[in-house]
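Bit of a strange request maybe. I'm writing a small parser for structure token strings and I need a real example to test against, not something I typed by hand. Could someone generate the tokens for this chain?
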Amino acid sequence: MTYNRSMPRLTVDGYGTFVVPADKRLVLALEQDARVDILHACGGNARCTTCRVEFIDGEPSRMTAAEKERLAARELSGVRLSCQILCDHDMAVRAISRLEGSGRPDSGKTPEEIITPPAQWV
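Reply from user aminoacidic:
Good idea to test on real output. This should exercise your parser:
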């Protein structure tokens, strides 16, 4: 397989490796490119924490203020919010918050293409 080096590779545990457009939101890459039934009940707005992933490799060193606040408020550690992460480098994740088995009727409203709320990096 050949790929453009400027396009990051996303490896999803149990699904494979996918080349995704640079700076695509991770939640959208999981859903659209890897075909993972990732939850995003709040529509990708860093409110519900249903889009949680665990990083196997390539965890970003920075996060949005919204992600940091929400993880702290829910006292969550060892996970990240895929709605607040851009695919700007190769990464490997485990999708831990999926529609299957959740009892929810759907994954949630499709998130916007840009990070919402507007990203303030910390």
